[in-house]
Backbone:
């Protein structure tokens, strides 16, 4: 069935809450009539009751921390951190608590918590509501980071996330919510750490994640008009990272461009570039190229925000440069 | 209250009202970017709070910050340029509605992080206390924001350090789409429990608000430490512009709207008698002209050039930005 990412996430929450009564949803406005700011939790309170769909005060440390504590003691909470920018409010609970229970308790702990959060620029909401931040999260040992780029993946990866016994941060790009595609009916799980080949090609590999996977696909389709066969790899999960898929594609194409909406330093683009240089050096016909946002905050200014985010034109230019090397 | 001050109070409240109504209609026509949160019917709070402040005093605002800016003396035209994200805006167009700031007026920023403001205001109060300059600092805090850990921590710090600070709670009884579960007065009670005077005031009664603010400001300036005020009010429009408030009981909303308008109440108060209808008409005309002029300038103004993306990340930086 064709549905949007927003609908796919909503459907998955319904299915998983139905399947396992230890799954609860908590966050700000999640039990409101409109199902949160984007309607993601629509219909859940009516079906599962306010004891399982819990509206919280505006207290991110307590929301995320309590979700972690509940997970540690037997529930499977799906907490909503409305915007990933609010990580600033609750980082301790993620960084020092949830991520470390398993290790520092010597393997005694299970923390099956999912933190759903909205990422990305493009809505003109400025520096404190538009960040990407997933590289920061992917750098933390003990948590997994998921970045779906389409509705089918959102369903498959969220189902896996909810059933996973480790903490997972599930990043939803706000500019993709309405994007539609065919989504498998019924139960659908996708394994973590398996990238998706979105477009097959032989001339160059374009690596993307979340919205940049979509941008990479658009660039590939424009490039095919010019006779360039680009392969597009969507990482799908950033931690674990499918290093093998990147290297396999590189073996085929000999060239890599990575597109990442994060700020450039210590980005996923840097991570992939490092991987390619370290383990695929002999396969490279040209230097790996990174297309990222700049080392600036996200401006509220729409015209500057458009300049900030990687776009199809910049990807095409990077591909051309790499091919011309 | 002197006739001049009375006229100022009216002018500021009415400016906020007309500014916000015009913002709303321009936004609905798709002429303004981002998210905007309208301050209607809360005007008496910002104006009473800031009327006796100078540019040396500080406020830290919220996502619903346009009224706070105007009350603190920000220029209408510079504000509009900012809200439209133009190059000559207060923040060169980079902040927009949720991050508008004017350091020259002691306006330390709207804030898109709920609960982000109070620690900053506490820091400004610490500056005032350390320099011993008699300045005070105020944090505006929504009823929803009142639950944040940052707010509790700031309450405690302000008491421990005896800071010249005011916690100005605006209890409009809604946080986004969720009705406040707390009875009126609970917020002040909680603040008071930290060890500071805390009052509950009708936020649509300008004169009551002004008296309470004077007490708090005097206390702060004289080294008496922090004060909390819970101003009870009503959120007239939706959370952000475009939210039709379908989740609210419409009869109750209509009723609340009618009783919570601070402007007619101010004009009907015997203490405002010195403000003649002629004077009111004159002020009104000037306000409308100023807002019209502001929008004319704004729509004719230039967008920032692309290179502006890279300015003001740092004061000085030896690294590469792109
Ligand atoms: C840290 C953080 N959490 C959540 C939000 C989303 N949010 C924006 S405004 C708001 C409600 C705030 O309610 P209140 O403090 O009562 O202020 P009001 O909107 O009523 O003026 C929420 C939850 C945010 N911006 N920042
Ligand atoms: Mg409120």
Residues:
């Amino acid at each position: 069935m064709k549905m949007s990412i927003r609908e796919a996430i909503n459907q998955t929450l319904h299915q998983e809450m139905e399947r396992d009564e230890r799954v609860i949803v908590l966050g700000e406005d999640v039990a409101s009539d409109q199902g949160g700011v984007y309607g993601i939790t629509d219909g859940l309170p009516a079906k599962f009751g306010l004891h399982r769909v819990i509206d919280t005060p505006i207290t991110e440390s307590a929301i995320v921390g309590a979700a972690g504590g509940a997970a540690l003691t037997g529930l499977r909470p799906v907490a909503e951190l409305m915007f990933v920018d609010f990580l600033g409010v609750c980082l301790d609970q993620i960084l020092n608590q949830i991520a470390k229970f398993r290790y520092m308790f010597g393997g005694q702990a299970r923390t099956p918590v999912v933190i759903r959060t909205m990422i990305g620029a493009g809505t003109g909401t400025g520096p404190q509501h538009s960040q990407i931040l997933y590289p920061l999260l992917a750098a933390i040992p003990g948590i997994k980071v998921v970045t779906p780029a389409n509705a089918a993946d959102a369903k498959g990866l969220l189902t896996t996330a909810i059933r996973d016994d480790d903490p997972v941060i599930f990043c939803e790009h706000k500019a993709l919510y309405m994007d539609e595609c065919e989504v498998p009916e019924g139960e659908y799980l996708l394994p973590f750490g398996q990238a998706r080949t979105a477009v097959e090609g032989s001339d160059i590999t374009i690596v993307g994640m979340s919205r940049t996977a979509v941008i990479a696909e658009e660039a590939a389709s424009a490039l095919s008009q010019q006779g360039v066969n680009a392969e597009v790899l969507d990482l799908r999960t950033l931690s674990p990272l499918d290093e093998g898929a990147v290297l396999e594609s590189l073996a085929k194409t000999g060239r890599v461009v990575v597109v990442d909406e994060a700020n450039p330093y210590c980005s996923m683009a840097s991570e992939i570039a490092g991987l390619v240089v370290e383990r695929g050096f002999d396969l490279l016909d040209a230097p790996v190229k990174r297309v990222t946002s700049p080392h600036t905050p996200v401006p509220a200014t729409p015209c500057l925000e458009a300049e900030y985010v990687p776009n199809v034109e910049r990807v095409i230019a990077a591909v051309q440069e790499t091919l011309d090397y | 209250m002197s006739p001049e001050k009375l006229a100022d109070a009216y002018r500021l409240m009415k400016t906020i009202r007309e500014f916000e109504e015009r913002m709303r209609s321009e936004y609905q026509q798709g002429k303004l970017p981002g998210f905007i949160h309208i301050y209607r019917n809360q005007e008496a709070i910002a104006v009473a709070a800031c009327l006796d402040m100078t540019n040396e005093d500080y406020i830290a605002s919220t996502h619903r910050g346009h009224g706070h800016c105007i009350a603190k003396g920000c220029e209408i035209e510079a504000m509009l340029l900012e809200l439209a994200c133009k190059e000559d805006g207060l923040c060169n167009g980079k902040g927009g509605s949720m991050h508008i700031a004017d350091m020259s007026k002691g306006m330390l920023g709207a804030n898109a992080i709920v609960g982000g403001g109070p620690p900053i205001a506490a820091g400004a109060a610490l500056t005032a206390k350390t320099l011993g300059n008699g300045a005070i600092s105020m944090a505006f805090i929504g009823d929803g924001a009142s639950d944040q850990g940052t707010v509790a921590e700031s309450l405690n710090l302000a008491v421990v350090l005896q800071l010249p600070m005011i916690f100005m709670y605006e209890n409009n009884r809604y946080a986004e789409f969720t009705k406040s579960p707390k009875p009126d007065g609970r917020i002040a009670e909680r603040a008071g429990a930290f060890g500071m005077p805390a009052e509950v005031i009708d936020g649509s009664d300008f004169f009551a608000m002004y008296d309470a603010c004077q007490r708090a400001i005097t206390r702060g300036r004289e080294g008496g430490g922090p004060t909390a005020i819970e101003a009870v009010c009503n959120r007239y429009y939706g959370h952000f512009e475009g939210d039709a408030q379908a989740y609210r009981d419409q009869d109750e909303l209509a009723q609340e709207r009618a009783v919570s308008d601070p402007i007619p109440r101010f004009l009907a108060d015997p203490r405002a008698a010195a403000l003649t209808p002629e004077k009111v008409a004159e002020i009104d005309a000037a306000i409308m002209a100023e807002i019209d002029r502001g929008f004319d300038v704004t729509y004719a103004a230039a967008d920032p050039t692309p290179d502006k993306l890279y300015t003001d990340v740092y004061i000085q930086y030896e690294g590469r930005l792109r």
Notes: The CA atoms of residues 278 and 320 of chain B lie 60 Å apart.
